[in-house]
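Hi team,

Filling in the usual template for the complex we talked about on Friday. All components are listed, including any nucleic acid strands or ligand strings, so the model treats them as one assembly.

SUBMITTER: L.P.
PURPOSE: interface mapping
COMPONENTS: two
RESIDUES: 343
SEQUENCES:
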Amino acid sequence: MSMHEKNELISAYLDGELAAEEESAVREHLASCPDCREEHASLRAAKSWLARAPRRAMPPELMAKIEASLSRPLWRQICDRLLPPMPVWAPAGALATAALTAVVWFGAHRTAPAGDIPLEPLLAAHCRYTAEALVPASELVASNYSAQLNAYYGDSSDQE
Amino acid sequence: MRDFSELIRRCGEKAYNFAFRLSGNEQDARDLVQGAFARAWEHFGSYDESKPFETWLYKILHNIYLDEVRRYAHSHVVSLDAPAPREETSWDELLPGTDPEPGSGMMRREEDEMVQKALNALPPHYRAAVALCDMEGLSYEQISEIMSCPVGTVRSRIHQGRELVRRALTRPPKTGVNRHEHA
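RESULT (copied from the run log):
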C-alpha cells in the first residue's frame, strides 16, 4: 500500500467511513506506527479547523426575496427567465395577444342568428312533399313533427 | 407551495453557508442560493421524497456552481481536480503569525477569513468535497450523490483537499515582520 493510500485510509478513518474490518486494522496500525499517528493528528487538526469555522448566516432579506419570487405563477417565472426585460416588446406583445384573442373569439361565435333561418321555403317544401304524398300520411302523423310545425305557425295543411 | 416554503426556511441557512464556502463571496453566494431554489421549485415534481431534500438541493446548487466555474474556465485556465492550489495564494499567507485572543470577535473574523482563503485556494472539486464533509457534516454516501461520483472518488477528494489545508496549518508561524520591509 502506498503512502498516499495509507493516508487516505487514515482520513476516512477520521470520518468514521471505514468498514469495521478496515477500521480495526487502521486502529491497530496507528497504535504501533508513530509516523501514521502524527499524520492522523495533523489531519484531525485540519478537519477540526474547518469544522470550527463560523457559519455564514443568510441575509434576512434574501429569504424573503426567494419566497416572493416563488409565489409567482410558474409560467411567469419561466417567462421572466426566458425573456429579457424589454419595455419595447411588452406593449406590442399585449396588442398582438388581444388581436389574436378577438379573432379567435369572433371565429368561434360566428353562427347565423335564429331569426335569419329561411323558414318559408322550408315549410313550402314540406307542404309540397305531403301534398304529393310521397310518404304515407300515417307515417307523417307518426312523426308528429308536421303537426307541431303547423301548430306553431298556425298554417295547418289540414285546414287547407 | 406551503411545503416548499417550509423547506426553504429549513434548508436556507445551510444552503447559503455551502454556497458561500464554494463561491467565496456574498454576491455569488446569493446568486447561487437563489438559482438553486428557483431550479428546485421548477423541478419540484421530480423530487424523490424518500431522499433528504437537503441533499437534492445541495446537488442542484453544486451543479449551478460547476456550470459557473466551467463558464469561467472558457476564458481562464481552471482545473476542477488539480492536485495543487489553482490560485496564486501562497500557503504561508493563509495563517496568522500569532494566535489572536480566543473568543474575541476579531479572532472569529480572522479565522473565518483564513478558512475561506484556504478553501478558495483548493480546486473546485476538492473544495466542494471538503466543505460538504467537514463543514456541512455529510456522509461520503451523501457527498457522492451530490457530486455524482463514486464514494471512492469522494474519499480521495476529501483527503487531497484536507491534505492541502493541513499543509497550510503545519507551516511555521510567521515572524510578524512586514514583508514589504524586505523589499
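MY TAKE: The mean pLDDT of chain B is 80. Helices of chain B lie at 2-23, 26-42, 53-73, 105-120, 124-135, 140-147, 151-169, 179-182.

Thanks, L.
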